[in-house]
Design brief:
- The protein is α/β, with parallel strands linked by helices and 332 residues long.
- The chain has ten helices and 14 strands.
- The protein has two domains: 171 residues, 2-keto-3-deoxy-galactonokinase, substrate binding domain (Nucleotidyltransferase, domain 5, 2-Layer Sandwich); 155 residues, Nucleotidyltransferase, domain 5, CATH 3.30.420.310.
- Strand 13, helix 9 and strand 14 form a beta-alpha-beta unit.
- Helix content is 39%, strand content 19%.
- The strands form three sheets. A six-stranded mixed beta sheet has the order 3-2-1-4-7-6, sandwiched between helices. Strands 12-11-10-13-14 form a five-stranded mixed beta sheet, sandwiched between helices. Strands 5-8-9 form a three-stranded mixed beta sheet.
- InterPro entries: ATPase_NBD (IPR043129), DGOK (IPR007729), DGOK_C (IPR042257), DGOK_N (IPR042258).
Length: 332
């Protein structure tokens, strides 16, 4: 049995897995590393992790001493987490992550050591100002990528797209190594524009949902941004609302496409990723971001293959990836 911990900016998830890789118990908390950054200490995070761990072992009727191990990933390994672990430098495969694991006993959190999995950065050393675009970092998306690599056919180079408030693009080589990442704050930008700008009225202060998704307007926003600029396309959301279609869903989809156009363009132009036309694109994450990114990357036409991956019901990519590292470590 294994326990996995996934801590992000705003929440923490813990899962207890049996020997066959099936969830036995799970717990979550609305506490993440943002609380540490705000409070100036990690006491709330420590308490949240402790509570989630205790809940899982109690629910399953087991003891901590019966476990093969407890493995943690995500922002919990950052300077505002529970144990800071240096990033690995890309390219990095699963064995590099196993070697980079740092074990720490935190008696007020758990009676047995927790094994912390490192994140990844694109390069080592100082970064020159004119090469800033090549540099990127991730904590959490690396284990999601390892889960995808474990589930998908081997010997293929992939581009994984993991959409959210911060969308992460992760490139891999045919040997199963993570070769680079690129981060976009398109989700945060969309939220800011939809709630706190002149465009809020046009989009009804709301976001596109699965039910309100309208491909025609998404593509129109995307094409307008590509033909002019993001700033111009964003303002054109008001034009759509006042002169084309007064339904807020139409304007929201138009803005959605305009915001995401930059991400699609960045993937092909970026020096942070190792991709080509033959790279297989796999998108996994929240809706309607997944569907929108797939539709726009297919509209762009650069990549020959763009598809979606849906994890098994009730399982998260981060948990599956952390479990993959834990199993590899235990097998050594």
């Amino acid at each position: 049995m294994m326990l996995t911990i996934d801590t992000g900016t705003t929440n923490t998830r813990v899962c207890l897995w049996d020997a066959g890789g099936h969830p036995m118990a799970a717990a979550s908390s609305g506490t993440g590393v943002r609380d540490t950054a705000v409070d100036g200490n990690n006491s709330r995070l420590r308490e949240a992790v402790r509570g989630c761990l205790a809940h899982c072992v109690e629910e399953a009727g087991v003891s901590f001493e019966e476990l093969e191990g407890i493995y943690a990933s995500g922002m919990i390994t950052s300077n505002v987490g529970l144990c800071e672990v240096p990033h690995l430098v890309a390219p990095a495969g699963i064995d590099d992550f196993v070697q980079g694991v740092h074990s720490e006993l935190l008696p007020d959190v758990c009676p047995v050591p927790i094994h912390f999995i490192p994140g990844v950065k694109n390069r080592d050393g100082a970064v020159e100002l004119d090469r800033v675009e090549e540099m990127d970092i991730m904590r959490g998306e690396e284990v999601e990528s390892l889960a995808l690599l474990d589930a998908l056919p081997k010997g293929i180079s992939y581009l994984f797209v993991l959409p959210g408030s911060h969308t992460k693009f992760v490139s891999t080589d045919s040997g199963g190594r993570l070769t680079g990442c690129l981060t976009s704050i398109a989700g945060e930008l969309l939220a800011a524009l939809s709630q706190h700008s002149i465009l809020a009225d046009a989009v009804g202060h709301s976001f596109v949902t699965r039910e309100s998704y309208r491909l025609e307007y998404l593509l129109a926003g995307y094409r307008t941004a590509a033909a002019s600029s993001f700033g111009r396309a964003a303002f054109s959301t008001r034009i759509v609302s006042q002169f084309v279609d007064s339904d807020p869903a139409a304007a929201a989809n138009f803005l959605f496409g305009a915001v995401l156009q930059g991400d699609v363009q960045a993937v092909r132009a970026s020096r942070a990723l190792s991709v080509g036309r033959e790279t297989r694109v796999v998108v996994s994450g929240k809706e309607p971001l997944c569907t929108a990114i797939i539709d726009l990357m297919r509209e762009d036409g650069y990549f020959a293959s763009v598809e979606r991956f849906i994890p098994p019901e009730g399982m998260s990519l981060s948990g599956l990836g952390t479990l993959a590292v834990a199993r590899r470590a235990a097998a050594r």
